[in-house]
């Protein structure tokens, strides 16, 4: 089995992260999957962005949760990365899913619920309901840094893969290991490189695997997947290591 190459926030090394151009590029490059992050706006829209605030990647300031969808849609989410992306808007989850359907994307779609800093009451049920009512050609994987969110989403849709996210010094890793429910772990690459042993039943997809050395390491260990800002580079190294 080849290690899956999953584009982190789309092809975010070469396009503005978590935008339509980044997702199109990931599919064009042949990534096996796409990872992205979802929040809720003030009026309950499912918003695709990494940070809880719009400050770093747009020309606005403030929290997503304090803005309506129409306020968020006025912001520019491309110019921070390069002037040629001026005019790029923040996408909603529906817009990204529609794009993937239009492009007939059949890979992995890893949706990270960003509930670790702001809990966005009801986001799990909202996302689960949306996907229950939407026919999708791709394979969905939920993930979150918040164990409660992972458990809740797993309870709401046990047939969908759910992954626990964690960083190097997390205490939750032991808790996850004991849980028979969650079969996927999405740890940081630093955690993977410092833990040589893990339960074989657990599927690992570390992030953010950007260096050639880390990519080769993951391929040699035949991990389930890697989450990278540079899918094209990752695919070319994979061809060398795994054929
Ligand atoms: O889902 C993997 C990775 O995206 C987790 O960290 O902060 O980039 O969302 P972050
Ligand atoms: Mg993420």
UniProtKB/TrEMBL annotation:
Transmembrane segments: none annotated. One of its GO terms (molecular function) is phosphoric diester hydrolase activity. One of its GO terms (biological process) is lipid metabolic process. Residues 3-238 form the GP-PDE domain. It comes from Pediococcus argentinicus. This is UgpQ protein. InterPro entries: GP_PDE_dom (IPR030395), PLC-like_Pdiesterase_TIM-brl (IPR017946). Gene3D superfamilies: Phosphatidylinositol (PI) phosphodiesterase (3.20.20.190).
